[in-house]
């Protein structure tokens, strides 16, 4: 089972003892990878779409993992009664993620790859009492992704980190790509939309700081 760089980055945040619920599992590849490589004792793959769930079940059967991965057709974590401690929300939009997190979340660890509004996700999950412990940017097939690791432990998060994430010294190339993306967005927003531009201008400033930080470390 070969995963995309993005899904592999998510898998790398999972330890073998984690009791995982993968919400919006789609094909179930991540869950199959975890069962084969990390040997997690509890893996739940859930999706809202019955068609997706059927395909996931077929994929799981191909690998004879029916006794290792439990499958739910449900909205988010609704009706999941098992004692999970790790939640994966990947490939979903920020508003859907926030809706899912409005239910009773039992997890001590949440891994999020949101399709949009990364700053909104960081602010929201921190408000829920989680700390943002790590963030990894992945550039794949001309798209930039952010994989965020939250844990149910307080850690101080600065305004800058809410906007551009926790500094990751292995993401210098991805910061450069992000810088270009933001510069392009800024050229498309008319100057009269001052407040709309402000957030991107701040993001630009902080990403430049992250790049300068790396240069200082090299000198
Ligand atoms: C783009 S796929 C992402 C699949 C996989 N997690 C990944 O990162 O590659 C999004 C999946 O989330 C499912 N989904 C959307 N809203 C959901 C919800 N409220 N609860 C559970 N699954 C949902 C969709 O049916 C779809 O299979």
Description:
By secondary structure, this protein is an alpha/beta fold. The protein has 2 domains: 5-156, Rossmann fold (3-Layer(aba) Sandwich); 173-218, no CATH class. The chain is built from 8 helices and 7 strands. It has helices at residues 5-11, 29-38, 50-62, 94-101, 118-127, 159-164, 172-188, 194-218, and strands spanning 19-23, 42-47, 69-73, 86-92, 109-114, 131-140, 143-151. Strands 3-2-1-4-5-7-6 form a 7-stranded mixed beta sheet, with helices on both faces. Helix 4 packs parallel to helix 5 (118-127) and helix 7 runs antiparallel to helix 8. Bound molecules: S-adenosylmethionine. The site of S-adenosylmethionine has 17 residues, from strand 2, strand 4 and helix 4.
Radius of gyration: 18 Å
Secondary structure: helix percent: 40-55%
Number of strands: 7
Distance between the termini: 41 Å
CATH overall fold name of the largest domain: Rossmann fold
Characterize the largest beta sheet: strand count, sense, and whether it forms a barrel: 7 strands, mixed
Q: What is the name of the CATH superfamily of the largest domain?
A: Vaccinia Virus protein VP39
Total number of domains: 2
């Amino acid at each position: 089972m070969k995963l995309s760089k993005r899904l592999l980055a998510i898998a790398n945040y999972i330890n073998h003892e984690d009791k995982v619920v993968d919400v919006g599992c789609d094909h179930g590849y991540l869950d199959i990878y975890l069962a084969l490589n990390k040997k997690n004792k509890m893996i739940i793959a859930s999706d809202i779409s019955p068609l997706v769930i059927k395909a996931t079940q077929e994929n799981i059967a191909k690998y004879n993992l029916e006794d290792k991965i439990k499958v739910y057709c449900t909205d988010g974590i609704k009706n999941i009664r098992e004692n999970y401690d790790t939640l994966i929300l990947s490939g979903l939009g920020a508003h859907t993620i926030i809706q899912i997190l409005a239910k009773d979340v039992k997890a001590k660890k949440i891994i999020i790859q949101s399709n949009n509004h990364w700053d909104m996700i960081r602010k929201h999950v921190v408000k829920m009492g989680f700390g943002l412990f790590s963030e990894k940017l992945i550039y794949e097939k001309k798209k930039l992704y952010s994989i965020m690791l939250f844990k149910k432990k307080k850690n101080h998060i600065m305004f800058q980190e809410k906007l551009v994430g926790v500094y990751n010294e292995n993401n210098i190339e991805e910061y450069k790509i992000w810088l270009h993306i933001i510069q392009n967005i800024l050229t498309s927003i008319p100057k009269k939309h001052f407040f709309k531009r402000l957030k991107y201008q701040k993001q630009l400033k902080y990403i430049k700081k992250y790049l300068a930080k790396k240069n200082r470390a090299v000198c």
